[in-house]
Specification:
The protein is mainly α. The chain has 8 helices and no strands. Helices cover 64% and strands 0% of the residues. Helix 7 crosses helix 8. The chain is globular. The termini are close together.
Length: 247
Amino acid sequence: MVRPLMKNKAFGALLVFTGVCAFALIVLRVVFYQFIFDPQYYPVDYGRFNFFSFFTVQSNLYVCFYLVCLGCAVFGAGRAQKIAFHPMVRLTVTTYILVTGMVYCGGIPMQMTPPLYWTDFYQCLLSVVQIVHHVVMPCLMLVLFLLPPTNQRIHLRALPLVGVYPLVYSLVSIVRGAVSDPPFYPYPFYRPDFFWTMFFGSRPLQPVQAYLLMLPMLLCGVGVFVLLALVLSLIHNNLCARLEPAV
């Protein structure tokens, strides 16, 4: 059974508009790309299209796609409804963007996230992108997740699937960093020396041991996605049970 809100055309138009605007913001970021040297955060120019290497951007692209699909679903598009109303699609897009927001906000006190600047057009654009990607979109998707479009439950046995994409993304990022010249790691915790320094301080880096040390940390990171998905699933299923009986 489809909720009344999912038949509100004004709501559907707002979703499509939001998704298109969010995507346009990503396009603007790429079109107006400038390299601004920063010894801590941006020491090397990897090019404008390297922007898409970040999980932040990929998860936000997923949100843009979902918002447009959900908006089209409100207007009665059958294929869009199959995508946007599917519980696992809603679960994965919400989980990924929430992790994006949590990692960003958690990295602020550790000085792992670039500061915001408002000195000129490009700096303002970068700051707006950061805020939209890491704060606005996670909050928006959480609200939408708490408004189930149907009473279809999430099957908990499917939760491990949520960790597949983050695992593949992480492995690709680690391998790319190891073989690229100059090395590029989208996030510090993909660097082999990140956890090595954390546990062994100034001891000389041992590459093989460092990568072996990364393996359990990587699995723990993927576990965070699955654990968050479990919490969201329990909330979702409880909402379905309280609002309407399952079909």
